[in-house]
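All the exercises in this workshop are built on plain-text protein records. Instead of coordinates, the fold is spelled out as a row of discrete tokens. Once this layout is familiar, the rest of the handout is easier to follow. The record below serves as our worked example for the rest of this section.
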Amino acid sequence: MRNPVTSRNKAQLWRSGVIILFLAIIGGGIWAVNRYVPPQHLFWKPLDTNRPLGFATKQQLFAFNLKPSEICLSVARDTAGFQSGVADPLRPKSGAGKDVCGWDIALNVTGTDKVIFAPRQTQMQCPLSLAAFLWQREVDALAEKHFGQPLAKIHHFGSYSCRRQRGNGSGRWSEHAFANAWDVASFELQDGTRIIIQKDWNGPRKKANFLREVRDAACGIFRVTLSPDFNAAHYDHFHLDMGPTRSCR
């Protein structure tokens, strides 16, 4: 007759062995992923702006919103070629947005050591500024691909504007109200050639294709990317923001 206690112990040992083996496999898998998969593809890794874009870049950027501001500011300071400095806090003293608009911590951004903004300076929340840095790098590569020369300037309509999403003053507050959105109007190449969204979105094929690839690159970086394909209000610019919603149009 079998000893029931011994059988029970064997079953418990077997189950424990299976659990240990399972945990070892999982642990080994995690170790291998952390060791061999580039960090830009792992959402739990911090953003490294010196690396190319990856599957997790957008999530790594958004994660700054859940961390102390100093972490993002430190990444901005350590990003090679990024031209920025801490902006003075801004809170409107009057008007409908006096208790809503502005920022406590933001950056004055002028571009990079290769690509400048026009107008030269705009204020951005730190995660938005790093997204802009990564995106201009992609735009530069697309300029080389389509036109055989580098990007020199990004012409824009600015970032901060204390307003709601709708022009009639109703609805939710725009991400522009917090310097968390950026409107881009055109791109200038090294030889002075301009690719203008208003004119070239449905213009010559080379310029139109460039603008659509630029838009698609933005979709992989910013939380929201809105182009002329979205609605008539965006006929002349890309709206790019790092707000809580997600859209690529």
